[in-house]
Design a protein that fits this description.
The complex is a heterodimer.
Chain A (H helix, E strand, L loop, with lengths): L13 E2 L6 E2 L8 E2 L6 E2 L6 H21 L3 E5 L2 E5 L1 H8 L5 H30 L6 H15 L3 H13 L1 E2 L3 E5 L1 H19 L4 H13 L1
Antiparallel strand pairs in A: 1-2, 3-4, 5-6, 5-8, 7-8
Helix pairs in contact in A: 1-3, 1-6, 2-3, 3-4, 3-6, 4-6, 5-6
Chain B lengths: L14 E2 L12 H20 L3 E6 L11 E4 L2 E11 L6 E7 L12 E5 L2 E3 L2 E3 L3 H4 L2 E5 L9 E3 L13 E8 L10 E4 L2 E11 L6 E8 L11 E4 L4 E5 L2 E5 L3 H6 L2 E4 L15 E5 L2 H5 L6 E8 L11 E4 L2 E9 L2 E2 L6 E10 H11 L5 H14 L2 E9 L4 E8 L15 E3 L5 H18 L2 H39 L5 H29 L3 H4 L7
Parallel strand pairs in B: 2-10, 3-9, 11-19, 12-18, 15-19, 20-27, 21-26
Antiparallel strand pairs in B: 2-5, 3-4, 4-5, 6-9, 7-8, 11-14, 12-13, 13-14, 15-18, 16-17, 20-24, 21-22, 22-24, 23-24, 25-26
The chains are: A alpha+beta, B alpha+beta.
C-alpha cells in the first residue's frame, strides 16, 4: 500500500458501500443514490468524524458507570451482594481461577477501554492530517471492528446468568445497572467503529500528495 | 476494461438528490443523552449515599470490609466499607457506609455491637449469623445530638431500648448464678431480665441491673423484695419435704424473683433505678427486719458444737432473734470452760403487744421489767438440736420452773441472761443414771440360782421318766392278755362252744316234751328215739 495510489475521490468517483459499484456523482451534486442498488453514495461517510466522536464520547461517558456500578446482584441465603466488574475480577482471582479472572479482566475492562482509546487515536490522527503509520492505523481499525462484535459476550453472559440462576429461596442473580451501561459501551463503540471511515486515513496523504505533487 | 480506460467517460452519473447539509450532526444527541443518564445516575448515587460513620471495636473478629452489614430490626441500613487498626493498635476502627436518610439514627447514644451466635442458658440468639456471618446490630438512641463516631458495645444489650419498662438496681453480696439475660420472675411469670452487673466502688457488693417489662414494672413498689430464685429450694420440715422452684428454666440458669408481701400496704410503683436488696431466698426476703435489736450474752457450759452465727433464737418456738457470735472463755481460777454466745434479740417481735398497750411509755424500762419477770418465772436459754441430721443447734428460751433462781444484772454490757443445760445434756444425765443402776444388778448370783434350779428340774424329770416306764409295762401286759391267740382267748372260745352245745340239748328236750308231754311222767318210751 503505497501513498501514491490514487483514490476514487481524487478522480471524482464514488463507490457504493453496498454493491461496490463505482459511479460519478451527478453534475452539481456531491451525493446521490447508487444507480444499481439505490444505496446512498458519498465520497466519504457523511459526518464520519463528527459521528464517530459523538459515539465515542457517549461510550466513554457510559464506560465510567459501567465500571463503577455493580453489574450483577447475587442474592443468597446469606444476604445479597452486588459486584462490579472489577470486584468480579478480584473475586475470581484464586490459584486455580486466575485464567478466568484474566479473561474477565481482558474482555470486560481492557478491551472496551482499548477500543475507546484506539478510536480516539484514529480520530485525532485523522483530524490532524497525520500521514504517519497509515498501515498500522488501518490494522488498528480492523482490529477494533473485529473485536467489536465479540464484546457483547460479557453482556450475554450476564443476561444468561441472571436468567438461569433463579433458585429462588437459595440463590438468585439479577442484573444491576452497571450491566446496562456496559452494554451501552459495547453498542456505542461498535457504532463509533462503524461510522468511522477508514479511507480518511489516506485522505491526508493524498491531499498532501496533491498539494506537493 | 476499466483499467484500460482510466478516465471512464462512460461511467453513468448518479441521480441528484437535493438535500440540505446540517452542519452539526444529530448524532450528538447520543453522547448528550449518555452524559445526562450518567450524570443522573451519579447524582442519584451521591444523593443515595448515606452518612459515613466509624465504629470502634475491640476486635474485628467476624467483620469483613464490604461484607458485614449493619442491621436494625433485621433491616439492612449500612455496610462496613473499611477496617483498620487504631493508631495505638488497641482497637479496630470500622468505617461504615450507612443508607441514606439514616442521619436521624446516628445520635450520640446510639449503640452498635457485633451480632454473633450466643448461647447463654436462658436464650439462644444470633443463630442466623452461623450462615450469614456476623453482622452489626444497632440500637437507636433517643438523644438529639448527631454523632458519627461510635464505640461498639462488647456484648449486645439484653433489652432493646424501645421495650417499655423500667430498670432497677439490686444490691447483692454475691452474684450467684446470675448473668446477663438471667430471667426475672414475678409470680413465676418471666417479666424481665438481668441486663448488667458491676462491682460496687468499695468492692463490698455487686450492683445487678435488672429490667422489668411494662406492665409488670408497676408491681415493683418500694416495699418489693427481690431474691435469688436460683435452683431448687428444698425444705425438710415437720410437714414433710417441700421443694420450691420458680420454673424449670430457673433451675437451669438461675433467676431473680420479686414479690410484694400481701400484708404490706399497696404503694405506688417504685421509681426507675431504685436500689433494692437481693436476698438469697424467699424466706430471707420476707423475714421481718430487726428494727430495734438488743444484744445479750448467754454463757453455756456445754459444747456449742453445731451452733453457728445466724442460728435462730426462739422463744417457745417463735423466732425472736439470732446468734451473732460464739466465743470461748476459760476461768483462770477454776479452769472451767464456757462458751459465751452473743445474740441479738428483736424486742419488737417479743414486745409488740406490750408496746401497743402502752404507747409513749419508756420502752427500755418496760422491756427490762418484762425480761426480769420472765427470768423470775423460770425463763432460761437452752441449746436445742434443730436438725437431727446435721446436729445444728439453736437457742431456745423456755420456762424451766425447776431451774435455780436467777436475776438479770442490767448494769453489765452486754447483759447476761441465765441459761439452762441443754435438753440433750439432761437426757444424757438420766441415761447415765439408768446405766449405773443397771450396773448394780447382781447378775452372777441370779445366774447361779437359775443354774441350781435347772439341775433340780433335771432330776425331777428323770424320776418322772421311771414312773412313765412302769405305766407303760402295765399297759403292755394288759395288751398281751387280750390278744387273739392268748390262753385267755382260747378258753373263752371253748367255754362259748360248750354253752352252745348245752343250749342245743335244751332245745331238743323242749321239742320232745312238747310232742310227748307224758314222758315227763312216764319217762321215755322205746319208740321214741
Amino acid at each position: 500500500m503505497s501513498l501514491g495510489v490514487p483514490t476514487a475521490m481524487q478522480h471524482g468517483l464514488q463507490s457504493c458501500e453496498g454493491c461496490g459499484l463505482l459511479s460519478r456523482p451527478a453534475a452539481g451534486a456531491e451525493e446521490g443514490l447508487c444507480p444499481r442498488c439505490d444505496g446512498e453514495l458519498t465520497f466519504r461517510k457523511r459526518d464520519s468524524l463528527q459521528r464517530t466522536w459523538a459515539y465515542l464520547i457517549a461510550a466513554a461517558v457510559c464506560y465510567i458507570p459501567a465500571n463503577v456500578l455493580p453489574v450483577l446482584t447475587t442474592t443468597t441465603a446469606a444476604g445479597s451482594e452486588s459486584d462490579t466488574i472489577l470486584q468480579g475480577v478480584v473475586l475470581l482471582w484464586s490459584p486455580t481461577g486466575w485464567p478466568l479472572s484474566l479473561i474477565v479482566l481482558f474482555a470486560s475492562i481492557m478491551i472496551p477501554s482499548a477500543k475507546i482509546l484506539a478510536l480516539g487515536y484514529l480520530l485525532v490522527t485523522v483530524q490532524r492530517g497525520s500521514v504517519e503509520n497509515n498501515e498500522q492505523r488501518i490494522r488498528l481499525y480492523r482490529l477494533v471492528e473485529l473485536i467489536g462484535r465479540w464484546s457483547m459476550v460479557d453482556v450475554f453472559v450476564g443476561a444468561f446468568t441472571a436468567a438461569l440462576v433463579q433458585l429462588q429461596p437459595l440463590m438468585s442473580v439479577s442484573p444491576a445497572p452497571g450491566l446496562f451501561f456496559f452494554a451501552a459501551v459495547v453498542v456505542l463503540t461498535m457504532l463509533a467503529a462503524e461510522s468511522f471511515d477508514p479511507r480518511l486515513i489516506w485522505d491526508a496523504a493524498s491531499v498532501r500528495e496533491v498539494r506537493h505533487g | 476494461m476499466a483499467d484500460s480506460n482510466p478516465p471512464l467517460p462512460e461511467v453513468p452519473e448518479s441521480r441528484v438528490r437535493s438535500k440540505k447539509r446540517t452542519r452539526l450532526s444529530l448524532v450528538w444527541i447520543i453522547p448528550i443523552v449518555a452524559a445526562i443518564i450518567g450524570a443522573w445516575v451519579a447524582v442519584a448515587r451521591i444523593l443515595a449515599e448515606g452518612p459515613k460513620i466509624t465504629i470502634v471495636f475491640k476486635s474485628a473478629e467476624g467483620l469483613e470490609a464490604g461484607k458485614t452489614k449493619i442491621e436494625y430490626n433485621g433491616v439492612e441500613i449500612g455496610e462496613v466499607t473499611a477496617i483498620r487498626l487504631s493508631d495505638d493498635h488497641q482497637n479496630v476502627i470500622a468505617t461504615a457506609q450507612m443508607a441514606p436518610k439514616t442521619d436521624s439514627f446516628l445520635v450520640d447514644d446510639t449503640h452498635f455491637w457485633v451480632v454473633r451466635p450466643r448461647i447463654s442458658g436462658a436464650n439462644v440468639s444470633g443463630l442466623g449469623t452461623l450462615i450469614s456471618g456476623a453482622y452489626i446490630g444497632m440500637e437507636i438512641g433517643t438523644s438529639r445530638r448527631a454523632e458519627r463516631d461510635f464505640v461498639a458495645l462488647q456484648t449486645p444489650p439484653v433489652v432493646a431500648a424501645d421495650v417499655p419498662g423500667r430498670y432497677f438496681i439490686l444490691k447483692t453480696p454475691n452474684l450467684g448464678s446470675l448473668d446477663d439475660g438471667t430471667p426475672v420472675f414475678f409470680r413465676r411469670l418471666q417479666v424481665g431480665q438481668v441486663t448488667s452487673y458491676d462491682l460496687d466502688k468499695d468492692g463490698r457488693s455487686l450492683n445487678v441491673k435488672v429490667f422489668v417489662k411494662a406492665p409488670y414494672d408497676q408491681y415493683v413498689t418500694p416495699d418489693t423484695r427481690f431474691w435469688h430464685a436460683s435452683g431448687v429450694d428444698m425444705e425438710l420440715s415437720a410437714r414433710g419435704l417441700s421443694v420450691h422452684t420458680e420454673s424449670v428454666l430457673s433451675i437451669l440458669v438461675g433467676g431473680v424473683a420479686f414479690e410484694t408481701a400481701v400484708s404490706d400496704p399497696i404503694l405506688p410503683p417504685a421509681e426507675a433505678n431504685t436500689v433494692f436488696t437481693l436476698f438469697s431466698n424467699r424466706d430471707e426476703a420476707f423475714k421481718p427486719a430487726a428494727r430495734d435489736p438488743q444484744t445479750f450474752v448467754l454463757v453455756f457450759k456445754q459444747s456449742v458444737r453445731g451452733l453457728k452465727p445466724g442460728a435462730p433464737v426462739e422463744f417457745r418456738g417463735i423466732e425472736i432473734g439470732e446468734v451473732e457470735s460464739i466465743s470461748a472463755q476459760i476461768d483462770a481460777n477454776t479452769f472451767e470452760f464456757s462458751a459465751p454466745v452473743t445474740i441479738h434479740l428483736d424486742a419488737q417481735r417479743l414486745g409488740v403487744k406490750v408496746q401497743e398497750l402502752a404507747p409513749g411509755a419508756d420502752f427500755a424500762a418496760l422491756r427490762r421489767k418484762l425480761i426480769d419477770s420472765l427470768v423470775a418465772h423460770g425463763v432460761r436459754a437452752q441449746l436445742q438440736t434443730g436438725n437431727l441430721l446435721t446436729g445444728a443447734l439453736f437457742v431456745s428460751f423456755d420456762f424451766f420452773p425447776d431451774a435455780p433462781p436467777a436475776t438479770v444484772d442490767w448494769s453489765q454490757k452486754p447483759v447476761l441472761l441465765p441459761t439452762a443445760p441443754g435438753k440433750l445434756e439432761a437426757l444424757e444425765a438420766s441415761v447415765t443414771g439408768i446405766i449405773k443402776k443397771l450396773d448394780q444388778v447382781p447378775y452372777k448370783a441370779i445366774g447361779d440360782d437359775v443354774q441350781k434350779a435347772l439341775v433340780e428340774l433335771d432330776l425331777t424329770l428323770v424320776s418322772a421318766r421311771g414312773a412313765l416306764d412302769s405305766g407303760r409295762g402295765t399297759l403292755d401286759n394288759a395288751n398281751k392278755m387280750i390278744e387273739p391267740n392268748s390262753a385267755l382267748a382260747a378258753d373263752l372260745g371253748n367255754t362259748l362252744q360248750e354253752v352252745t352245745r348245752a343250749a342245743r340239748s335244751v332245745r331238743v328236750l323242749a321239742d320232745y316234751l312238747e310232742r310227748h308231754p307224758e314222758a315227763l311222767i312216764r319217762g321215755k318210751t322205746g319208740e321214741a328215739k
